[in-house]
Specification:
By secondary structure, this protein is an alpha+beta fold. The protein contains 2 helices and 5 strands. The radius of gyration is 13 Å and the shape is globular.
Length: about 100
């Protein structure tokens, strides 16, 4: 059984952060995009070490969508990191959270 490494990117009152196992990293000067890029880089390393690594994006309304998964997505990511894995799935998820 592999260990989980789920990086959660979210906006807080003082900027964009990455949460991992209760620890908060940031704020990132490049905002959401900077935090997502850093999270994907870290998740890629964790995935290479055998972890179930993924990056999740938490919207301001609390809705969480998957932005990147090790072993499924390309690295470096070919799509802008601010998009979910499947743009239409992201829209459906966003619509559900409203």
């Amino acid at each position: 059984m592999s260990l989980s490494a789920h990086y959660i990117v979210s906006c807080q009152t003082d900027g964009w952060f990455i949460m991992l196992e209760g620890e908060r990293y940031g704020p990132f000067l490049d905002g959401q995009v900077g935090a997502l890029i850093a999270a994907v880089q870290a998740a890629n390393h964790a995935g290479k070490d055998g972890h179930d690594a993924r990056v999740l994006l938490r919207a301001k309304n609390g809705c969480v969508s998957t932005a990147w998964i090790f072993g499924t997505e390309s690295y470096p990511s070919r799509t802008p990191p601010s998009r979910a894995r499947n743009p239409s799935a992201h829209k459906v998820a966003a619509d559900r959270c409203r």
